[in-house]
Amino acid sequence: MPNILTPEYECMSRDALCALQGERLRKTVKLTYDNVPVYRERMDKAGVSPEDIKTVEDIEKLPFTEKTDLRDNFPFGLFAADKRDIVRIQGSSGTTGKPIVVGYTENDIEVWTEMAARALKAAGCGRDDIVQIAYGYGLFTGGLGAHQAATRCGAMVVPMSSGNTARQIMMMRELGSTMLCCTPSYATMLGETIREMGLDPKRDLKLKSGCFGAEPWTAQMRTKLEELLDIDACDIYGLTEIAGPGVAFECLEKQGMHVNEDHVIIEIVDPETGKNLPDGTPGELIFTTITKTGQPMIRYRTHDICTVTREKCACGRTTARMGRITGRTDDMIVVRGVNVFPSQIEGVLVGISGVAPHYMLIVDRVHSSDTLEVQVELNDANFSDTVAHIENFRAAIVERIKSVVGIAVKVTIVPPKSLPRFEGKAKRVVDKRETASLGLKCE
Ligand code: DLL
Fold first, then answer.
1. What is the 8-class DSSP label of residue 65?
2. What is the pLDDT of residue 354?
3. Counting atoms of ligand 1 from 1, which one is nearest the CA of 240?
4. From 304, 306, 343, mutation site for ligand 1 pocket: most ligand atoms within 8 A of C-beta
5. C or N: which end of the chain has fewer Cβ atoms within 10 Å?
6. Tally of CA atoms within 13 A in the half-sphere of 142 that contains its CB
């Protein structure tokens, strides 16, 4: 594989990039058609053959692939390579449902490492850095993905894995970690604990930046995290099916996530019709891998929602940039007919001073009508205030949520540190309606 830690792939002209993508797409389509019965059957049914794919624009002729395809063909049914050439299995429990596994060849590990190394490098990583990795290691791609990337950057890696907060902070102080890689919710928890211990990140730590991803987070959450830890907090995106962390990443300009377009083709489609949408219009994110050989993915429906822009970034990269993931087509909560994304609520809550960055959304059905309860923590100083003060706070939150989301919700102020904290991906929505309709009792 080419050495990707050079501008030649990240700063290409659009024409050169499209030519490269077209050539790699043709190869990938042929590889899957020849080796994966599911792809062959689906393309035959759609009346498309590998010869019909000549340029990158022809991608729209190809059928989509879904997570159900991975489950239906579990575990090895989508391999395009001989099983003996698969050197790694990574997996995901997904945000919903049964687990999936994905096979990586040596080439695929290399592709993923290069993509993720670009991400860390864009957040400032180099040989002088000490990178503390607090993503979980294992089938989940976060730990190993960040590990491979930091190693490729020549940094000193501290493979902590997730959890054990006191130990994380001790190591961070003793070793002088300069970069942190974990979920934004765990970074928040680390930051709060550091503050509670009376430590001042500027004085007591050497952290300068971090790559945070694996779950949606808002611009407001970034501001909070950057203040808490006194760092640059960059977003990093990825998914097991495509290549773990590093499919797209923010540079220090923090103006959207650069997509590694020489390895994947990004499309944004209308989730209802499947038709491609113009740049800037929010829609479902679709990825096609064009350099993987073990388990290539053709037009994989991520169910993540965002926008894309192809304008050149101030950092010099010319690659397409994804906006923040604003939700998933399957995490949208429909409450009394109104679509609510958890990120909308997070944006409101984290923007109010005195509110702690921890919340839970409880959806239920009472007398055939949907209810949404927002449980939120105030920080210590505000919680110890008068009852009237807390009630004012509560009423203000109800009002702000109503103006953003369009419906009245119940807001419950809970004591500081009483809501769950997450060491990996946060799970902030509890929907009791499905179990209620099945006659099951919710805890
Ligand atoms: O979460 C890979 C990863 C690890 C990405 C570490 C970044 C950092 P999965 O477990 O397969 O893979 O989950 C993929 O997580 O479809 C999104 O819904 C969500 N997700 C990942 N990164 C982001 C992000 C890893 N930066 C699913 N913002 C994806 C919002 C994200 N959502």
1. B
2. 87
3. 11
4. 304
5. C
6. 27
